Amino acid sequence: MRRLSTLVWQVAIGLAALAIWQWGWELHDRVPWLVPDLLDPYFVSKPSDIYQQFLRMSCLVSSDGQWTWGESGAFARCIGKSENNLWIATYFTLKNTLWGFAIGVSSGFALGLLLGRSDRLSEIFYPYITAFNSVPRIALAPIIILAFGIGDASKIVTAWLVVVFLVFFNTFEGARSVDRDHINAARLLGAGEWQVTRSVIVPSTMAWLFASLTPAVSFSLIGVIVGEFIGAEHGIGRMIIESEARGEAAGMMVAVFVLMIVGVILASIVRRVQAYLLRWRPGQTAAAT
């Protein structure tokens, strides 16, 4: 019953927000103190216009408003007219996001585990890592574009650079906070350094790692979009820049909503994987179902 009540409230709030967005600007002249200038359709368009623009950008309807599935081959011809339509742009943005996320998580975890287990290496490299981490990674995006070009490599590197430090610091702290009694008990039973790392350190740091994965996948998407803003052959970020140059608020909002949906889906997948892999921990059983 509580879940149903929560769903009803969520739907009601969403519908109310859409209604205000759709018709709120019509009240601006009468009550300007109540309706902010941000609701001007020139800036954020309207939900109905965004929906129609989505149908056109996704090639579900043709330029004259006809559904493409009613004509044989119309959808394929529409897709072929643009090298960066909504489907292709989403594919490239999602692909680069996942690559940047995977490489950033794996390298950040390995580096955090290595320095977390070695006091000597930590003393040597930690100040440099902290100094580099203090530099806003987004500010390095133009340099990355110059070094790797406007192709996919620069987007993946940007996403990796945003993700790797987030995962590294969580893993580093997790590796250093492992209960020493557990490590000593494993060594007492004859476990070597590799066995201690595999059977004690890694499982103990998994919770720390997964705590960073949900923001990491969002940051990876942000890194890719920033790279696409600066220069890209494909991607949703390029669509936003092109729509902004044409003054098409509806096109920009379509891209924003697609990014929001992609981000929600990726975060939900990460949370489900986390709940499954950490199902042995108290409080995770309900989340895994």
Describe this structure in words.
This protein is mostly helical and 289 residues long. It folds into two domains: 39 residues, no CATH class; 203 residues, Orthogonal Bundle (MetI-like fold), CATH 1.10.3720.10. The chain is 75% helix and 0% strand. Helix 3 crosses helix 12, helix 5 packs antiparallel against helix 6 and helix 10 packs antiparallel against helix 12. The two termini are 17 Å apart. 30% of the residues are buried. The C terminus is likely disordered.
Number of helices: 13
Global outline? elongated
Query: Termini separation (Å)?
Result: 17 Å
> Main sheet?
none
Number of strands: 0
CATH homologous superfamily annotation of the largest domain: MetI-like
Alpha carbon gyration radius: 24 Å
Q: List the helices and strands in order.
A: HHHHHHHHHHHHH
How much of the polypeptide forms β-strand, as a percent range?
Answer: under 5%
Q: Helix content range of the residues, please?
A: over 70%
In the CATH hierarchy, the third-tier topology of the largest domain is known as MetI-like fold
Key traits:
disordered C terminus, MetI-like fold, 289 residues, mainly alpha, single chain, 75% helix, 2 domains, elongated
